Amino acid sequence: MCWEIDYQFFAEQEKAKKMAQEKRTGVISDLLTEANKQAEKTGAEAAPVSETVPAK
Can you tell me whether residue 56 is helix, strand or coil? Predict the structure, then answer.
């Protein structure tokens, strides 16, 4: 009986760990997506080569 309770407890812990990992993965994915969007905006706003000032 005691072993069954332990196995159930460990199974619940593993489920909780997997759910937390999936949630973390989703948050990281969202953050990377947002960072990539911001990087694309910055790259598009760069001055064209013809407008740069020559070095002296």
Answer: coil
